[in-house]
Fold:
Amino acid sequence: MKLSAWAKQQGVSYRTAWSYFHNGQLPGARQLPTGTIIVPDTNERVKKNFVVTYARVSSLQNKDNLASQSKRLIKYCNARGWSTHLNIQEIGSGLNDRRRKLLKVLQEGKATKLVVEHKDRLTRFGFTYIDALCQHIGCELVVINNTKGNKEDLVQDFVSVVTSFCARLYGQRRSKRATEKLIKELDK
Structure:
């Protein structure tokens, strides 16, 4: 809230509140580039600890791996002393940006920790965007096995991209054929 609103709420003059700010007596208060002084609302509730594990596989053929992946995540959290509140298991491509369960967790914003085994279990591309979103909603993104520069991961990413584009291309062709069929029916 603005410093003037804070001063009014506290029953002090603006000048007194301004002095408090400049003397460092208002923890968390900051000045915007415009000059406006913002004071954190003391009535804001602190987010309760809410740990979410997220396990994902790309197809039904890997369903057994999904359960074991989820168990490993839960064991990791327990070893760290975190009790899990939600354990999500999802089947879908890492390139798919419309995974219902993951979107729901990110949109609700209740999670304080989102725990995944590998970055690619969360997403194949755009990990930095999801990390930034998590930071914005006050959620720590925990990647257990944070491998870097793995040649096999790079090859798998390339194959995933090619597969995704092929699926889209063939889907567009089917759509085009359906449109052409509809036009023929209307011409009759």
